[in-house]
Amino acid sequence: NYKELEKLLFSMDGKSYSAYKSLKGEYKFEKYILAIDHVQSDPYAPPSKMRVIMDRKICGIPYELTDTKDKNIAVSDFLTRNFYREIQKIGNDSTGTGGSGRIFIDRCGQEILERTSVLIKRDKVEVRFEMGMPARGRRIMGKAAQKIIFEQLPEIVEKSIIYDNLNKKALNEQVILVLDQEYARKMLKEKGLVAFVANDSVLPRESGVSDRPMKNAVKFKSPEKFEITLKLPSGKEISGMGIPKGITLIVGGGYHGKSTLLAALERGVYNHIAQDGRELIISESDAVKIRAEDGRNVEKVNISGFINNLPQNKDTRAFSTENASGSTSQAANVAEALEYGTSLLLIDEDTSATNFMIRDGRMQKLVAKEKEPITPFIDRVKELYDNFGVSTILIVGGSGDYFDMANHVIMMDEYVPKDVTEKAKEIAKLDENKREFSSNDKFKGVTQRIPLKKSFSQSGKLDKTKAKGKYSILYGKELIDISGLEQLVDDSQTNCIAVMIDYFKNKVLDEKLTLSQAADRIYEKIEKEGLDSISSYTGHPGNLALPRKQEFCGAVNRYRKLRIK
Ligand code: ADP
Ligand code: MG
Predict the structure, then answer these.
(1) DSSP assignment, residue 276?
(2) pLDDT digits (tens, 9 = 90+) for 529-560
(3) CA of 393 relative to ligand 1 center, distance in Å
(4) Does the CB atom of residue 256 touch ligand 1 within 6 A?
(5) The model scores a pTM over 0.80
(6) How far is CA 229 from CA 184, 186, 218, 414, in A?
(7) Which of 255, 291, 352 is the best mutation target for the ligand 1 pocket, counting ligand atoms within 8 Å of the beta carbon and taking the most?
(8) How many angstroms separate the CA atoms of 38 and 51, rounded?
(9) Cα–chain-centroid distance for residue 284?
(10) Which of 26, 303, 317, 378 is the most buried (most CB within 10 A)?
(11) ipTM above 0.85, yes or no
(12) What is the pLDDT of residues 447-492, one digit of tens each?
């Protein structure tokens, strides 16, 4: 029990750091069990892994608040934020070396994600955190360790997870908010929509490096034509802009808020915390941002719907390159998104390859069809919707050619959206310089690809997969650059992708499953057994946040040694 631990810590004072190893084990405290799962080997190593395991009755959180998965995620997120906040309040007064005397837990951003940081079960609540075991040089600071474990930690735990000490109203509201958001997302399909933006939402962010809402922003107001009202489970009735299925064009002058609207829709696949400004901006959960990403590798992707008749007869039904151009990378991104499955593509002119997006009538007259390998997106966007059920929302401020294709045209005017569909259609009708459909054939869809085992076998199972920040993953010595995945929002999602890639190559990859099917297997496992179940790490897997299938597959596709059958 705890007395034993206290004695141990005092007796270690001044000894060499490795003596900390003997702390591994479980200790009974008054209100919880402290499990020391993994002890760091020196003060500069990643901090030690610990858990607080508390009986549900002592914790006191009512069962009605956690009896569905969505509610459970909302509460777990709330407790993680609490724990983080209490750690910050206590601060770190240790004068030791490296990460001495610091406690860490996942830091949640504006999104509410499924995480492993706080596990809530019917009989217990488990908080997974890390602690830098204090040292001066390499000598153990036993008294400092005693103070953290016996004074600071109990206070953090007391204030952050015991129901009676929580802000019950805020907790309750977070649960209700998540249920409203999930419900709104389900309602999209029923109402024939792909996205919804509530009136009074705040779209712009504080700055390029802060995801908090901008202060004094112009609040969102739906054009009358698109305004709908949703009745939410909480009883709230909210009005806002419903973006219907089909092809929706966002136009408007530079700096009038087009990209800001699209960015909010990209994030609408996630739920957001109260006061974020985007709590009721809801998109189809499988919406994918498509951008050009020159330099990325592409492995046997069928991009023939967009690119054909390349010089030297290069086959584009299974196109590979280690250094894609703007247009080929964007074509590959579309093809891959269709492979994993998506109902909505989001495209911004700012991050697109022009020759992938448009080719006007004049250029068509100058360069013969046979000499141009690219069938621009404008000639596929309608087929994608009509024949494959994939909607597109796209920003094109610089060319009116899309007027012909669009079902709806929304103009951003000083941050306020206006419906300009009819006007755009009229202009298109009067135009004499019409362009022609530029392809010789129909869009035939994409090819499901089967990854090969040899993609990962260079040095066998020894290769660890490790996340480095939000945008890179290291597999052995191979760096996977995933900065093109703009809908990734949290470092812990990247951690989770790394763990998933490990699981994928060791347990799922069998040369029969397509990448999409293999991903589905992993998500089924997580759904059934929890996010913990895919981790093979020593100590608790406390730093995982679930990414979407789109981002997981996106990361695998950016692995440069991926080989396809
Ligand atoms: P566009 O894509 O039309 O050129 P952006 O979306 O990039 O324009 O927006 C331009 C600037 O305006 C950005 O700095 C953004 O933060 C700001 N902005 C966008 N929407 C609003 C708003 N509703 N209120 C205040 N500022 C906004
Ligand atoms: Mg823009």
Answers:
(1) S
(2) 999 999 877 678 889 999 999 999 999 999 99
(3) 18
(4) yes
(5) yes
(6) 11, 14, 21, 24
(7) 255
(8) 10
(9) 14
(10) 303
(11) yes
(12) 999 999 999 876 555 678 899 999 999 998 899 999 999 999 999 9
